TrEMBL record:
One GO cellular component term: transferase complex
WD repeats: 40-87, 88-131, 163-192, 193-236
Top-rank lineage group of the source organism: Eukaryota
Lineage of producing organism: Eukaryota, Sar, Rhizaria, Retaria, Foraminifera
Protein name per UniProt: G-protein beta WD-40 repeats containing protein
Keyword Repeat: yes
Pfam families associated with the record: WD40 (PF00400)
Positions of transmembrane segments: none
PANTHER family reported in the protein's UniProt record: WD REPEAT DOMAIN 5B, WD40 REPEAT PROTEIN
PROSITE patterns: WD_REPEATS_1, WD_REPEATS_2, WD_REPEATS_REGION
Organism: Reticulomyxa filosa
Keyword Lyase recorded: no
Matches recorded under InterPro entries: WD40/YVTN_repeat-like_dom_sf (IPR015943), WD40_PAC1 (IPR020472), WD40_repeat_CS (IPR019775), WD40_repeat_dom_sf (IPR036322), WD40_rpt (IPR001680)
Keywords: Repeat, WD repeat
Length: 252
């Protein structure tokens, strides 16, 4: 069956890949030994997104994957000890995209859902902190803005959402064909980007010299680059003959 999502991480000296599938499983592979080492079967519906948790590794040395599903839940799995750690309830429809914060050591998680909302969660307390409303259809993908170069004391909680130079935001892509940016602290919508002619399947914040840009991929077969400050489209990349489901900036 279809694999909806994959992620890669290094824990210690070991490389791992995890995957989420339409077959309702989360699977983990050891890259160095080229073999599957774990499979989790706790979901009752498709697994849409998977992410390794740097927060658990750096704070408790646990090897943890976070996953979201069409069964409305977000779950955390300890793949070294083969057990489920946490389960987040709150969305009223399938949970699609998830992303950890780069600030505060990955303590915060955002999620998008077919209930048209985005939620921000505190991984440490398992609490839902904020709900973001405004999309007119399913939210399929989310991202959290990267660390700001002019931010000091990035481990302090009060860095969340202090908008105006060093604040953090969430961007989301939806079936309503829009990309929206949200202030993490106030939950207010900051910008709306229009231009795609079909569902937006993937969004990603830029970093370094591209810190003020967003990249998006859509079922309209295009990849688009946007300027966050002006809300203007910078470039359209055409060439695909079908929908674009995953995009990423070059790391170099």
């Amino acid at each position: 069956m279809a694999v909806w999502s994959i992620d890669y991480s290094i824990f210690g000296d070991c490389q791992f890949i995890c995957s989420g599938s339409h077959d309702k499983t989360v699977r983990v592979c050891d890259v160095d030994n080229n073999k599957q080492i774990q499979s989790f079967n706790g979901y009752s519906d498709s697994v849409y997104c998977v992410k390794f948790s740097s927060y658990h590794y750096h704070n408790t040395r646990q090897h943890v994957i976070c996953s979201s599903s069409n069964d409305k839940t977000i779950r955390f799995w300890d793949f070294k000890n083969n057990k489920q750690l946490q389960i987040f309830h709150g969305h009223t429809c399938g949970v699609t995209g998830i992303e950890f914060s780069q600030f505060n050591g990955g303590r915060y998680l955002c999620s998008g859902s077919c209930d048209k909302t985005i939620r921000l969660w505190d991984v440490e307390t398992s609490k839902s902190l904020h709900v973001f409303n405004g999309h007119k259809n399913d939210v399929w993908c989310v991202d959290i803005s990267p660390l700001q170069s002019n931010s000091k004391n990035n481990n302090k909680m009060n860095n969340i959402g202090v908008f105006g130079g060093n604040g953090y935001t969430i961007c989301s892509g939806s079936f309503d064909r829009t990309i929206r940016i949200w202030d993490i602290e106030t939950t207010k919508q900051f910008n709306v980007f229009n231009g795609h002619e079909n569902i937006i399947n993937s969004v990603r914040y830029g970093s370094n010299e591209l810190i003020n840009t967003i990249l998006s991929g859509s079922s309209d077969k295009s990849v688009r680059l946007w300027d966050i400050r002006s809300c203007q489209q910078i470039q359209v990349f055409n060439g695909h003959t079908n929908g674009v489901f995953a995009i990423e900036y070059s790391p170099f």
